[in-house]
Amino acid sequence: MTTLLLPRKTPVVSRSLETKRAPSSTGGFSLVEVVVAIGIFAFCIVALIGLLQVALTSVRESQVDSSLASVMGNLSARLNTIDATELSTVNGTNHYFDLTGMPLSASNDPSVYFRAKWTAVDSVTMASLFDLPGGVNLRTWTVAIEYPAPQYGKSLRFLVGRRAW
To answer: What value does the mean pLDDT take over residues 57-74?
Structure first.
């Protein structure tokens, strides 16, 4: 008698059932990891805010520097357009400019940011300082650019001159 062995039918078990685990404590982040991550994030944000303040200050100073260059250009143009006979009228005058360096007509204008004050320098003093030959008619002024309005806490002073022909 021969026995036939027929394949046995066994139920198929899915792998997902085989690897199913019981809930454990390794499934998420611990409180210490979360606190450390938040601390690192906060440190980075504080550093970025500090850099932002430095960048804004730098931009503001750069704007004032370029405005001062514009003010000096305007003052130089005014000096060159004044007739030689009227050069003495420059002494003691004030000129007002806005934040972009554009001239303004009145000191009570709300957009005044710079004030330029002209003060004449004695021609004998200038001739002795620069060893100028006799007969050179050089008019010289110190110009003080003061800013910001209205308290004028900062100033820049420079010497400007022109020959009076």
So the answer is: 89
Query: How much of the chain, in percent, has pLDDT values that exceed 90?
Result: 18
The answer to whether 67 and 99 are in contact (CB under 8 A) is yes
What sign does the CA torsion over 85, 143, 58, 101 have? negative
| Residue ranges per structural domain of the chain | 34-163
Token pair for 161: 């001159």
Distance CA 24, CA 3 (A): 50
Tally of CA atoms within 13 A in the half-sphere of 121 that contains its CB: 20
pLDDT tens-digit profile of 69-126? 898 888 888 877 877 777 777 778 888 998 888 888 888 888 888 988 888 877 777 7
Q: How far apart are CA 123 and CA 85, in angstroms?
A: 16
Question: What is the pLDDT at residue 58?
Answer: 92
Cα–Cα distances in Å, from 99 out to 43, 63, 127?
36, 8, 36
